[in-house]
Specification:
Length: about 100
């Protein structure tokens, strides 16, 4: 059976946040798909102290959210990249919402 794959697209006014999970780290980047540019990127490698993975993801969401807010952007498109909305993905999204971003 063929599954329909949705294409997620973001513009400068409402950019796309794409995430990638590895076993140890979480990576997130803000992308303007119209121009094909990465505007902002961050990862859990920036946090040097040891925390639970969900807590690190929440803090990464807040850091990324603050950087996005400095561009004057309040609305985003959240691209999970096929990951289930659970655990670290959910914590990152809650960190972004905590700063004031809207999906």
């Amino acid at each position: 059976m063929n599954k329909k794959i949705k294409k997620i697209f973001g513009f400068l006014e409402k950019p796309r946040i794409s995430i990638f999970l590895s076993n140890k780290h979480i990576y997130a980047q803000v992308i303007d798909d119209y121009k094909g540019h990465t505007l902002i990127s961050t990862s859990s490698k920036e946090i040097r102290y040891k925390l639970k993975k969900e807590k690190k993801s929440f803090i990464i969401g807040q850091i990324l959210g603050n950087r996005v807010n400095s561009y004057g952007i309040t609305k985003i498109v959240f691209d999970r990249n096929g990951y289930i909305y659970h655990g670290r993905v959910k914590a990152l999204a809650e960190g972004l919402r905590n700063v004031g971003l809207q999906f």
